Fold this protein.
Amino acid sequence: MRTSIRTAGATLAAAALLATACTAAPGGSGAGRTAPVELGDVRLVAYSGCDDLLAGLRAATAEHVGPWGLGGPVTYALAEDSAARSAKQEAPEHSTTNTHEAGVDEPDLVKTDGKRVITVNRGVLRVVDAAGRKVTGTLRLVEAEQAWAPADLLVSGDRALVLFSGGGIIPYGATAKIAPSPGPRYVLVDLSGEPEVIGSITPDGSHVDARMVGSTVRLVVRSQPALTFPDAGPDATDAERTRRNVEAVKTAPVEAWLPTYQVTGADGRTEKRTVDCGRISHPREYTGTSMLTVHSLDLAGGERALAETAPIGVAADGDTVYGTGSSLYVTSNPRSWWARPIDNVIVDEEPAPRPSPTIVEQEPKPLPDSTAQSPAPPGGAAPEVEPTPAEETVTLPPRTETSAPATTPVLPPEETEIHRFDVTAPGAPRYAASGRVPGRLLNQYSLSEHEGHLRVATTLETGKTSSSTVYALKSDTLAEVGRVGGLGEGERIYSVRFIGPTGYVVTFRQVDPLYVLDLRDPAAPRRTGELKITGYSAYLHPAGDGRLIGIGQEASEQGRTLGTQVSLFDVRDPANPRRLARFFQKDSGSEAEWDPHAFLYWAPTGTAVLPLSTWNGTEQTNGAALVLTVGDAAVTRAGTVVHPAPKPVENTRIAPYDPGIRRSVVIGDALWTVSDLGLAVNALDGLDKRAWIPFD
């Protein structure tokens, strides 16, 4: 959702919105009304103050509240810089997190600078000396009973930001059911000596994503209004429940929508803060059911970064974040966060009975040629069935103020809204442009900025068919320049990779067409070649010299997946892409299929490493790191790395250890692999065992 991409089992992948669209009015705490930015149907404007904000959010939210509040039937609870390190030898050559763009770091489980390996797992941060191969620092951040809570890292110099996303899947066998916090918590740690917490931010909401450019981290949080809906009793009709819920919305205070967060300093003192009305904006059309907040932290500032965070917000949702060194792109698909609209309710009259809604599908509205103006389980098995399920849609036709209540819900158009922010300066991003394209993104790899243009790959489903298109937009205005469509008729995108002026798109239903696109002329992009093979690639990685590595699944001619497939493609001739070699492991799957952070390609030796899970029909085995050698025209098995079996855990309140290897890094001539149990160090050449560093 992470996009980090964690597209299998991820609940959210999302977006950061807004920078300069709202500025405080002189002499007051409210915001002056800034000139709106027109982009077809997309427009970001600031509220004129808290009264304007409250009126707008109440009205928008009331249109989307139903008999069970803002969703289906649920149970509602009542509301109640440190000194620099001494000079050391230059770090050995080493790998880094496998990210989409160079210079833009993404949160992950392990980081290394060649001298240290820093990990966070089971609620514990550890610092390992790479030369001495021993743990030099340990810091427990959550109780052992909550060790299953998901966490990632971003590191800049001697500062680490640990991102607890909140929630997560409680592993089988764990009886501790309470998360360390109801939502995300971001903990800043000083690494200059023994690891030490120097502060934290705890927002009210859910974690979306984060990116770091230089030492500046931008955290994105999604929150819903804190509304308490009345209990109408078991015999109340849906109409009566809706009436009462609308009343609750229309009398709710502005504080119900304003994002809040807590800042805790090194001394343990906590201050609760609220995002000011003047720092919140909204699109012209919005539901009022969600708010995005962007926190900007400069890790180089240490504890001061927490005190000086000045978050911004927007009344919107999002699902994908893509960043370059100078731009931050945020996209949202209205269908991703769509709550079925409820017919207008007149609060002082009993509404007449109406028929039950019917389920229909709606053709997306056509978009103009120029669509803008300037201003997402680790170790899990692969699916065994065709992974292109039909999508149910519930839609509701447009209403007018004088029309009778509609009885047929209509989904929003299947389209992707895109917002670009300038991140060249530290601090909050500067809003630059917005636009939209038809269809839905797969993940952040569906976006790529190149020489003044943004390439966007989407799949558009219409009725029972689908097709994919790559759009070229001007990056400064996000106006469409050109497009090439008709990719994978009846299929959907499974992976995308843009490399310079060339695009590669994999679609799948029963076979895997790999399309090669010539994007040198953004006004006239064209398809130059196509390769059809069984199975699919879920992740594409450049291997240099006109080669492409594909990680995915082999499949039968009927589309049934059979096991992990690693393909080596020759794409030097764009008119004739070829598969040079293939490695196949029956009845297996890899986390690298949905999370590219799990994949390592070390170009100097042609070494590829990915986690591998296998199953035999009755049980699944996690634990191995599959090591492959990628040659000029071959993919061969170099071996596997397996960590020791875990010791039995007698305390049933503690989640059992997972011996599965999740990540791998290269430092010098050694391959390091990471699991819940510890770090293994093997020779990169030959995989001879060198060290085992247990996480005791």
About this structure: DSSP finds three helices and 42 strands in the chain.
